[in-house]
Amino acid sequence: MRALRAIRGGAPGACLLAASLTAAATPPPGPKHLGTASCATGVCHGRSAPVADRDVALNEYAIWLQKDRHSQAYRALESAEGRRILANLGLPSAKQAKICLDCHADNIATAQQGAKFKLVDGVGCEACHGAAEKWIESHSHKEATHAANLARGLYPSETPTGRAELCLGCHAGTAERFATHELMGAGHPRLSFELEAFTTDQPPHFRRDDPSYRRRKGRIDGVNLWVTGQLRSVSRQMTLLQSWWGRAGGALPEFALYDCHSCHHPMSNARWSRERVGAGIAPGTLRLQTGNLVVLRAITETLDGPKESDALGQATQALVLAGQRDAASLRIATERISAWVKAHDEWTRRSYSAEDTVRLRKSLVRYAAANRASDFAAAEQIVLGLDSLSYSLNDHDARRRVLDALFDTVKNATGFDPTRFASVAKTASAEL
Ligand code: HEC
Ligand code: HEC
Ligand code: HEC
Ligand code: HEC
């Protein structure tokens, strides 16, 4: 397994009156989630060791239970760290904390819970693969096809876009659930995500390089996953800005949408410069997060040239300025960027040659060396990206020394020094 190089540093409840008024119009419950125990029997996905002669290894449950943090996601709420967050928020127990359960468990309505369903199983099989009621019987038949499984409600987690949307649903948030600054203030770790690295580190319980896997589901290309993750992280950020910016109540916007380190860094560490933050952005002002946008700009320069990349740069700057104004400006700026991402959707479906990958890597390190990716979140995304691309190029071991040096600069968010990051990147650029 590859060590994950992620660096870690209420939603309004439904109004009861409104809920009862609309009860008549509530659609019937969706198909049932049967519970992880339904997948984990000895003849199904509950083997202790992988089997060779079947399409799937059948030890998925053991991997999930023993190595995958998702199986512990509910328990994290009851850990000392979890209890401290709950107490700070005045929440009496994990069991009733919908705000937490929405991301730390498969928190579906009681009507959709099958006999073996257990909330304490955390992020179980059906939280990712979808309600199994309609396909549990048929999907193990010899004649079952992937298309037929999908038609019965299996979630398309194999496609880069399907997977990005799935993971981002918890690792970034949705219009309904979000790790707000109130949660951060209570002690929740900062969320960061990169699709390719997180896929590798989950750890995988599927054999993506197996001929049988490729025949059924196609080839999964690491570079494509990485690019798709960047595109969809940006569009997700736009959704979150539209749904959460003014939701905290009071006069202040939702702080968790802003660059954490634009508020959280020592005052003695004077780091402001126009090249870092962008022309036209006044010193001492609050800036929205732009980590994924900066990386997307570097990608765009490689795939589409400097003109298109500059256009995205201008849209990013407009977004940061809108984040210093009001909801109306923000809507215009986020819609512009969402449209930009939509117009480049083809990048989620194309394949990338080794030559493309080398150019992408060079572009990333050039951005870093030029001090254009020096907000902590951008630097972190650059380092994760350089790592991912080096694995795709199969030269990670040969480049380990420079990759480690870069990783070292973002290991500790609090002590992050943008100038040092740029200078390490400058040295690394000769080798990457
Ligand atoms: C938007 C989704 C989301 C919400 C809401 C959320 N969490 Fe989390 N939480 C995560 C993710 C994702 C991680 C893993 C972060 C990482 O390591 O990248 C995490 C990590 C944690 C951790 C650290 C776990 C560990 O093993 O180190 C604790 C503790 C935690 N959350 C508690 C809570 C509590 C308590 C609540 C409710 C008040 C809550 N979370 C709400 C998504 C969420
Ligand atoms: C956090 C999300 C997540 C969870 C939880 C999860 N999976 Fe998966 N699973 C994936 C992804 C992503 C893939 C790879 C893409 C694909 O083939 O759909 C995958 C692939 C698989 C495959 C391989 C399919 C093939 O065609 O070769 C099986 C089987 C599987 N999962 C079973 C399980 C079981 C059983 C559980 C629960 C014990 C589980 N998964 C939990 C995300 C998840
Ligand atoms: C239902 C919400 C949910 C979904 C969907 C989800 N995750 Fe998670 N994930 C979590 C939570 C919560 C944690 C933290 C668990 C803990 O540490 O206790 C986590 C932890 C992780 C970790 C460990 C992070 C670390 O810091 O070590 C990885 C890797 C990960 N998820 C990858 C993925 C991938 C890849 C997908 C999509 C295929 C995905 N997750 C989908 C909620 C989710
Ligand atoms: C607009 C400025 C601002 C932004 C942006 C911001 N914070 Fe905060 N943060 C604050 C303030 C103010 C406090 C309260 C400090 C205190 O009570 O001493 C705080 C407190 C915290 C705390 C609790 C520290 C403690 O003393 O216990 C954490 C953790 C935290 N923020 C994390 C984050 C993360 C993660 C982000 C980015 C997602 C972020 N913050 C973005 C202003 C900000």
Walk me through this protein's architecture.
This protein has 2 domains: 32-155, no CATH class; 223-429, no CATH class. 51% of the residues lie in helices and 0% in strands. It has 22 helices and no strands. The protein is globular, with a radius of gyration of 22 Å. It has helices at residues 16-21, 36-39, 60-67, 73-78, 80-89, 98-104, 125-129, 146-151, 160-171, 181-186, 195-201, 211-217, 222-244, 260-263, 274-277, 291-304, 306-322, 327-343, 354-369, 376-392, 400-410, 418-429. Bound molecules: heme C (HEC) (4 copies). One heme C (HEC) binds at residues 36, 39, 45, 55-56, 60-61, 64, 70, 123-125, 127-129, 157-158, 163, 205-206, 213, 216-217.
- Average pLDDT metric: 92
Structural domain tally: 2
Distinct ligand kinds: heme C
Residues in helices, as a percent range: 40-55%
How many extended strands?
Answer: 0
Global morphology? globular
- Global Rg: 22 Å
Biggest sheet features: none
Helix-strand pattern = HHHHHHHHHHHHHHHHHHHHHH
Beta-strand residue fraction: under 5%
Concise overview:
The protein is built from 22 helices and no strands. The protein has helices at residues 16-21, 36-39, 60-67, 73-78, 80-89, 98-104, 125-129, 146-151, 160-171, 181-186, 195-201, 211-217, 222-244, 260-263, 274-277, 291-304, 306-322, 327-343, 354-369, 376-392, 400-410, 418-429. The relative contact order is 0.10.
Features:
mainly alpha, single chain, 51% helix, binds heme C, 432 residues, disordered N terminus
Topology (SSEs and partners):
Layout lengths: L15 H6 L14 H4 L20 H8 L5 H6 L1 H10 L8 H7 L20 H5 L16 H6 L8 H12 L9 H6 L8 H7 L9 H7 L4 H23 L15 H4 L10 H4 L13 H14 L1 H17 L4 H17 L10 H16 L6 H17 L7 H11 L7 H12 L3
Helix pairs in contact: 9-13, 13-16, 13-18, 16-17, 16-19, 16-20, 17-18, 19-20, 19-22, 20-21, 21-22
